[in-house]
Each structure stands twice: as structure tokens, then as C-alpha cells.
Design goal:
By secondary structure, the protein is of the alpha/beta class. It contains 9 helices and 8 strands. The protein has an 8-stranded parallel beta barrel with strand order 1-2-3-4-5-6-7-8, surrounded by 8 helices. Strand 4, helix 4 and strand 5 form a beta-alpha-beta unit. Helix 1 runs parallel beside helix 2. The radius of gyration is 16 Å and the shape is globular. The mean pLDDT is about 95.
């Protein structure tokens, strides 16, 4: 499956939720306009059942499912891709294990890391956090200028993450982001209605030349 060039990138909220609730929430987010789903689950002793159910759902909705951190899980269930942070494995390792998969790389506030990731074959890069985040409160802040520089020098899609709300997301799109990655802004509310609010941002902000 091809990684979208633009749109809402929804990341699962799994704490204190049943599998049925998570699946329902993800389906609602897709109905509201999410174009990518990432399975992120920091709970201990989690089985492969939920990500397999999510993959089935995403395949039905023709939306890619990306696995956070776990190359082995992505390979076991045949997910569409994997997203790697600084401590989650090397890009070359992921490409060897998942030769046809979407591989995304967290670049924080580093354009150099993003350029290296693109050269290494990453399908997209992610920068952030840009605003205060309840999901990653200790994450180092990123600056709008990194999006501006990245949009001039990268050809892969650029994802922005970290405390993004419908009220502040437009500044990131204007600076050069192609996709907005959101957890709480979607899944701490009615997911479908929240996703629709984000989707309107992409209507209001023109597509970058070259996309």
C-alpha cells in the first residue's frame, strides 16, 4: 500500500480501552477522514490479536496500518509498515526485514537525520513535538523552521506530531508539513467528529507545489 502524500495520521490511544473500543474508535477516525493509522501500544504483555484486527479493518477501509517501534510485529502480521524512533532499530534492519513496507523515521528537530533517512529509503519522516503533548510530555520541542527547511530539501512526505489540535495545526501545514499525526486530539473526543475538524485544515491550506 502507498503512503499518502497528505492528510490526517491517526495514532491509536490504547490505555484503559478494550480491543473492541479501540477498533471502534479507529473505524470512526477513518470515517472522519484519517488517511493513515499507526498502532502504538505501550502496555505490557500485549498479544498480536489487536494489531491483526486493526490490519483487517484498515485493509477493508483501504488505509495503511503502520506499527510503532516493533519491526518483528510488523513482519508477523504483514502490516503495511513500521515507524521507528531513535531507539527502535536501524532503517537498514527494518528494510531487510520488510523489503516492501512503508518505513517512517522520527527525526525530532533534526533535518540532518531526515536527509539521512530519505537517502536510506524511508517512505516518510516525522518531526516533533511542536506543542505541549500529554502523550509525550518529556519529548524535546521542535521548531517550525525545521519544517520550512525540510519542505525545501526533502521529496518524501513530512509528518508533524506533538500536541496538534485543529486550532494550531494550520501553522504546521503552512510551514511545510504534509500530514498531521494526532493521538489525544482524536481519541480523547468523538473520533469521527474530531477527525473531520482536522480534515478541514487540509481543505483550507493549499497543497504544496510538487505534491
Amino acid at each position: 500500500m502507498i503512503f499518502p502524500r497528505r492528510g490526517l495520521y491517526a495514532i491509536t490511544r490504547t490505555d484503559n480501552r478494550s480491543n473492541a473500543q479501540i477498533l471502534s474508535d479507529v473505524d470512526a477516525a477513518i470515517q472522519g477522514g484519517a488517511v493513515v493509522i499507526q498502532y502504538r501500544d505501550k502496555r505490557s504483555a500485549v498479544s498480536d490479536d489487536l494489531p491483526r484486527y486493526l490490519l483487517d479493518l484498515c485493509r477493508q477501509r483501504q488505509v495503511p496500518l503502520i506499527i510503532n517501534d516493533d519491526i518483528g510485529l510488523a513482519r508477523r502480521i504483514g502490516a503495511d509498515g513500521v515507524h521507528l524512533g531513535r531507539e527502535d532499530g536501524r532503517l537498514a534492519e527494518a528494510r531487510a526485514a520488510l523489503p516492501e513496507a512503508i518505513i517512517g523515521i522520527s527525526c525530532y528537530n533534526s533535518l540532518a537525520r531526515a536527509l539521512e533517512a530519505e537517502q536510506g529509503g524511508a517512505a516518510y519522516v516525522a518531526f516533533g513535538r511542536f506543542f505541549a503533548s500529554t502523550s509525550k510530555p518529556l519529548a524535546a520541542p521542535a521548531e517550525l523552521s525545521v519544517l520550512q527547511q525540510a519542505s525545501r530539501r526533502l521529496t518524501v512526505p513530512i509528518v508533524a506530531i506533538g500536541g496538534i489540535l485543529p486550532e494550531n495545526g494550520s501553522s504546521l501545514l503552512q510551514a511545510g508539513a504534509d500530514l498531521l499525526a494526532v493521538i489525544g486530539g482524536i481519541f480523547d473526543h468523538d473520533p469521527e467528529q474530531a477527525a473531520r475538524k482536522y480534515r478541514r485544515l487540509f481543505v483550507d491550506i493549499p497543497v504544496k507545489s510538487g505534491n
